[in-house]
Design a protein that fits this description.
Elements (H helix, E strand, L loop, with lengths): L2 E6 L4 H9 L4 H9 L1 E6 L6 H10 L12 E4 L4 E4 L10 H7 L4 E6 L10 E5 L5 E3 L2 E2 L5 E2 L1 H11 L16 H25 L3 E6 L2 H8 L3 H18 L5 E4 L3 E4 L2 E4 H7 L9 H7 L4 H10 L3 H7 L2 H4 L24 E3 L4 E4 L8 H13 L11 E6 H4 L11 E5 L3 E4 L8 E2 L6 E4 L1 E7 L7 E7 L3 H8 L4 E2 L15 H4 L4 E2 L13 H8 L7
Parallel strand pairs: 1-10, 1-11, 2-22, 5-6, 5-10, 13-18, 23-24
Antiparallel strand pairs: 2-21, 3-4, 6-9, 7-8, 11-21, 12-20, 13-19, 14-15, 15-17, 16-17
């Protein structure tokens, strides 16, 4: 029997509840009726990265040394982009291998470049990309025979084409995502049959893009009905199954432009440049992509126009992501923020003013409310090294914001007002996701539980008879059926695998080229 994890990026029960009640998701309902689960709490920030790694390692980011897909290095005034080799921990499939079990991983984010394991790894978006708008044609899977099979037999693609974007979210883009959902499940099923691993992980990722742009409208419902159909085929076999998500999605009622607020309150100074001029002229990335798609020239332009020139074109919201640092006046700046949470101080930590600035920012940010509704914009602002735990907690961002309910915190520089009622996204990230264990080994209790995302790896390891490393944050959940083999067995622990088995470090410049402005829709 293969144990299977099906990861559904951005899933939460509030979104799925109405469709379950209407009988639109019968196979997921069957898993609920036969299984045990509930709400899974993700680590802050509630993003694809780091939370897929928090699931796979059973650890918080303070033990991984990666806190989101990039970080701002204020000393060198640059973005540093992470790939799979930057995470300082083994994953659950490494421990399964070490205990003699094979594993297959399909499409999990933060697995590029794919490492060699006893089994196979098929890297997932958003990080597995040759450049901003072109998927990898090779080098996305190990071993070679698996990549050859996927490429030759299934015409496998890492990213949808055409890529969904703020200005291009019509039927063609929706169908591309739905087709990719089909392809993911087909690849997983075929590899399950060909390779027969003891454990299989599958992530469905780009359906989250539909939730960002449509929330719970018809394209999202279609995606979930498609997912449910595929679940039905896996349910025909007697597998132990975990269905889970890295975080949830809520409707965005308010956008808080944190860098605009920092600028208005004297913490951030901005120099206008080419980005501001292009935006005033109406030249935005959304419009450029729209024209390129209509002319069928996206691939051509991505090859002939240098990557750094592509990134100079601003988004309609303004300057975002890796371009933020290009407009910062560093000599006059005290703090700058990234999307959905981290704030970095441009002040040395041993400076006498450092703690005072943090105290001041925490007090001011936690008191912010919506000017019309009075809603609290941020639930809390944490000191990074206090929120996280582990040997790398000291490398965390200086401050970490916990977004208020139905609030999306954007790093865009350009809007006149720091608070808006709407933005690019209709659905934004929230910490509450889902988990659901079902199968012969598990109880039939329904959705009654609450757990941390870090509890899932140790629970899977114990379910499969593997030893649980003693440095995990998560615990083995009490979810096993009375009389089942895992319920009768004591949890066996072990020392963690050493870091020297985790792979070689990669070139940050290459990572930046793959990640910057990719249709990375988290």
């Amino acid at each position: 029997m293969t144990t299977i994890t099906i990861g559904l990026d951005g899933a939460n029960w509030d979104l799925l509840g109405p469709w379950l009640s209407e009988g639109r998701l019968p196979n997921l309902q069957r898993l609920i009726d036969d299984g045990v689960g509930g709400v899974s709490e993700s680590c802050l920030p509630p993003l694809t990265v780091p939370n897929w790694k928090c699931y796979a390692t059973g650890k918080n980011p303070g033990k991984l040394d990666v806190f989101r897909f990039d970080r701002i290095d204020t000393a060198n005034r640059e973005h540093v982009f992470h790939d799979a080799t930057d995470f300082r921990s083994a994953e659950l499939w490494d421990y399964l291998n070490d205990d003699g079990l094979t594993a297959g991983v399909v499409n999990k984010p933060s697995t590029y470049p794919p490492k060699e394991i006893d089994g196979f790894v098929v890297a997932g978006g958003p990080d597995a990309s040759e450049s901003a708008y072109r998927s990898l044609d090779s080098g996305f899977a190990t071993p070679e025979r698996v990549e050859s099979f996927l490429r030759e037999e299934l015409d496998y693609r890492v990213h949808p084409s055409p890529m969904i974007s703020p200005s291009e979210k019509g039927e063609a883009e929706v169908e591309a995502v739905l087709n990719l959902v089909d392809l993911r499940f087909e690849a997983a099923e075929r590899l399950l049959e060909r390779e027969n691993p003891d454990f299989l992980h599958l992530t469905v990722f780009y359906s989250m893009a539909l939730q960002h742009y449509f929330w719970d409208d018809e394209p999202v419902r279609r995606a979930w009905e498609r997912i449910d159909d595929h679940l039905g085929r896996l349910l025909d076999d007697d597998h132990d199954v975990l269905v889970m998500s890295d975080h949830g999605t809520w409707h965005v009622d308010t956008v808080f432009y944190v860098n605009v607020w920092l600028a208005q309150h004297g913490y951030l100074a901005v120099d206008g440049g080419v980005d501001e001029l292009l935006q005033r002229l109406g030249v935005t990335r959304e419009r450029a992509l729209s024209v390129a798609k209509r002319l069928g020239m996206v691939d051509t332009l991505s090859r002939v126009v240098p990557e750094r020139l592509q990134r100079m074109i601003p988004w309609e919201e303004g300057v975002k992501r890796d371009r933020v640092l290009s407009v910062v006046d560093w000599e006059e700046t005290t703090a700058v923020a990234s999307n959905q949470g981290p704030i970095y101080l441009n002040v040395p930590r041993d400076d006498a003013a450092y703690e005072g600035i943090r105290d001041e920012l925490i007090e001011e940010l936690e008191s912010l409310t919506h000017p019309q509704t009075g809603q609290q914009l941020l639930k809390a602002v944490h000191r990074g090294e206090e929120y996280y735990d582990g040997p790398y907690a000291g490398n965390a961002p200086d401050l970490l914001v916990d977004q208020g309910e139905n609030v999306h915190v954007s790093d865009a520089i350009g809007p006149d007002d720091p608070v808006a009622d709407s933005g690019v996204w209709v659905g934004g990230n929230m910490p509450e996701g889902i988990f659901l264990f079902s199968g012969p080994s598990f109880q039939s209790e329904g959705l009654t539980r609450r757990a941390s995302i870090t509890d899932l790896a140790p629970t899977l390891l114990h379910a499969m008879g593997a030893r649980v490393p003693d440095d995990l944050d998560g615990e083995v959940l009490d979810v096993f059926a009375e009389g089942s083999e895992p319920a009768a067995r004591e949890v066996a622990t072990r020392n963690p695998l050493s870091e020297d088995r985790l792979g070689e470090e990669s070139d940050d410049a290459n990572v930046e080229e793959r990640l910057a402005d990719l249709g990375y829709l988290e």
